[in-house]
Amino acid sequence: MKREGHPLSYGARPTDGDLRERTRGLADERVEKAYGGFMKYLQRSLEVAEARGYFRAPEVLRLQGKVPDWLRALAHEDGLAKLEARLGLPVPGALREFYACSLLACFLEASIDGEVFLSDPCVPEGEPPQVVSWWGRPHLALAFHGHSGMVCAAGLGEEDPLVYWGFEDEEEPYVDERRPPRPFSEWVFRIVDGHEATLDYWQKFYEELTQSDPRGLLTHGLTQTIFGMPGMGARLRRR
After folding, report:
1. Tens of pLDDT, residues 114-131
2. In the chain, domain spans
3. What is the signed CA dihedral for 66, 71, 76, 77, rounded to 10 degrees?
């Protein structure tokens, strides 16, 4: 299962010196209002995504109308208060920042091999975002992988919690010692920063498959996945 984008290598990010100058401002007004234009945990991810034009990609913008009500509600304090009452714990600061930026959620929905909107009919039962228990501690669902049934979730109790993939009915999540779990802010940044490498991989896959087996994309059911990746349509139009 692809977790943080595929392949495992990541493209170089823009230099820190000119990132802010290339950034046209945060893409979501709620972010500006809530954080004064600067986030503690996700700022780097927002700047890279904005600088590279990911938030203006049609694959991302078309998802704006599909953002589920539960996710929209968490962009506001009353929605967060209701979630915290349900959890009995505060929502981590890094997740609060994520919920405040719907375009970032749309980008992740379009770019990772997982369902960030948690609307798949096979998602674990309960009001989203669902809670799964690993090591006897609550973890808040971030995404769901429909083919495998795995859940991506972040632990509660830390402001920038570690992110894991696993099955809801198991006592522990899946942990690969070669790829240890990362804090949520870094998990998001690696997806954003590695997106060009992800596009490189899938563009090459697409081009090789269309040359060797034109019907292969339909056979593998990958057409929608590949063309739904932010920026892929523009790349393929330039071929």
Report:
1. 899 998 766 777 889 999
2. 16-193
3. 170
